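Chapter review: from sequence to fold.
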Amino acid sequence: MAKRLDLKNALQTIKDFYYRNQRIPSLSETAGIFNYSSRNTALYLLNKLVETGYMTRGTKGRLLTTPKFHDKTKLLGSISAGFPAPEEEELRQSLSLDEFLIRKPSATYMLEVSGDSMIGAGILPKDFVLVEKGRTPAPGDIVIAQVDGEWTMKYYRMENGKAYLQAANAKYPDIYAKEELVIAGVVISCVRNYA
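The token string follows.
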């Protein structure tokens, strides 16, 4: 008799693999993870996860995660950053950081920050910025830009109808393109890990 599929535990195992490797396991890997003797059994499991909305198939049949796949973080309340305030811990809701931070998943990517030119904006070396490509920048937005063949992250500024880039650190000069300024995306969030 065939062993009954425990979808909840299987999903958690697939999530563990995904968060370690930043990808869904292949059919062969899935079969190996669950000690399946057949790739067809692994395919059945992955198809069940598609049917239940945890994954979807992209172009060329590649498996992609959906917002339902990602665990939600519990929002327990608010905290005073000024004077101490008494407040009981209460579960307000759960939220997915992906859903909270990313409005257009297919147009959003992440970059690790190096350098200190944006420290005045609260963006430090080793932080991660989420970038939305295809978005038209407004003056004051922080952008990822290619200036005369070099990549940088700076404030997008306009002066007399001409765009230039400005650091958030006084030791860096403003950047005016000699030949070409291409905006690759607008920074929509900054993420820092304190651990």
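Two observations follow directly from the output. The CA atoms of residues 83 and 192 lie 24 Å apart. The helical segments are 7-21, 27-33, 39-51, 97-101.
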